[in-house]
Fold:
Amino acid sequence: MSFSSSSPVVSLRDVAIYQDVNTVLSNVNFDIDKGEFVYLVGRTGSGKSSLLKTLYSDLPLLTGTAAIADFRLNKLPRKQIPYLRRKIGIIFQDFQLLFDRTVAENLAFVLKATGWKDKSKRKQRISEVLMRVGLDAAANKLPHQLSGGEQQRIVVARALLNEPVILLADEPTGNLDPIVADGIMKLFMEINNSGTAVLMATHNYDIINRYPQRVLKCESGKVLDSKVESFALTTGY
Ligand SMILES: Nc1ncnc2c1ncn2[C@@H]1O[C@H](COP(=O)(O)OP(=O)(O)O)[C@@H](O)[C@H]1O
Ligand SMILES: [Mg+2]
Structure:
């Protein structure tokens, strides 16, 4: 509907994030607009993954209000979680492909699980996303026949299957050498340029310097926002 087309893709108000009894982050307030690219930085243990998990509803939202892709995260019924995850693409550091299935079978598995009943439509969509990541020739290969960078491209293709409004990526280049990581980064930029918002947790300050964008930084239990205040980017891992 037209009123939602201008609303942010992500919106958090006075959110707190917990792991067990510990408060990881509090007073979190930010919006991410449609088509925006945002980095999420902060040293190990500062709360980047916990924040992303809250956004894809792997951690429940207990304090504050938050919405992503038109889903309210407060008291989100468990049954709604698969629908939420169709609207957001999730990419982890380790590839999490099914290693006993071909690339096409990996992608078909997700399509079947998300309601694509028509085999020829599945085939068409698989070929579209593989084209998008530059690996249309890899459909019938097994993951172990591909390089690490190629496997990560397949993971990106998988995340794109249901045309998400935002990609959430948790250190997607963490296991890749710099040249391969740069290629993945260019792919993220292309996807972003075609209108998909991206929130990417990273430690890689070379990448941030090469492709400057808005930065959210987890520090001392808060989230700093380069849109609101300036802060040092380089204080440690
Ligand atoms: N599954 C978990 N159970 C309990 N504590 C956790 C769990 N995952 C992370 N934590 C703790 O939450 C804090 C934030 O971790 P995390 O969100 O993984 O940070 P980052 O991704 O920035 O490294 C850390 O203190 C970490 O030890
Ligand atoms: Mg993490």
About this structure: The mean pLDDT is 93. Residues 48-49, 170 surround magnesium ion (ligand 2) (CB under 6 Å).
